[in-house]
Amino acid sequence: MSAGAASAWHDVALELTNCPVGTSRVTASFSGAADSTGYYKNQGTAQNIQLELQDDSGNTLNTGATKTVQVDDSSQSARFPLQVRALTVNGGATQGTFRQ
């Protein structure tokens, strides 16, 4: 695979329910092992491949990033819409498993 090659984006969401009454906003802090590219490091057997995480506005959420959303008063819930993909920043990805 050449440098910059990536999989299709996959939509995921972090959903919080039963937020305490009176909670108006919640903040998620993102963490995980990063490799030298700054993206999340693959913990599987495939080499030279990273995980890219973005919010629904296309902002990259590398380790240490935070995202704040409003809590819905009527349902006492909050939703963080996200998207993820595998990519090879420098190329040379090998076959194997992909885990984060």
From TrEMBL:
<dbReference type="InterPro" id="IPR036937">
    <property type="entry name" value="Adhesion_dom_fimbrial_sf"/>
</dbReference>
<dbReference type="GO" id="GO:0043709">
    <property type="term" value="P:cell adhesion involved in single-species biofilm formation"/>
</dbReference>
<dbReference type="InterPro" id="IPR050263">
    <property type="entry name" value="Bact_Fimbrial_Adh_Pro"/>
</dbReference>
<protein>
    <submittedName>
        <fullName>P pilus assembly protein, pilin FimA</fullName>
    </submittedName>
</protein>
<dbReference type="InterPro" id="IPR008966">
    <property type="entry name" value="Adhesion_dom_sf"/>
</dbReference>
<dbReference type="GO" id="GO:0009289">
    <property type="term" value="C:pilus"/>
</dbReference>
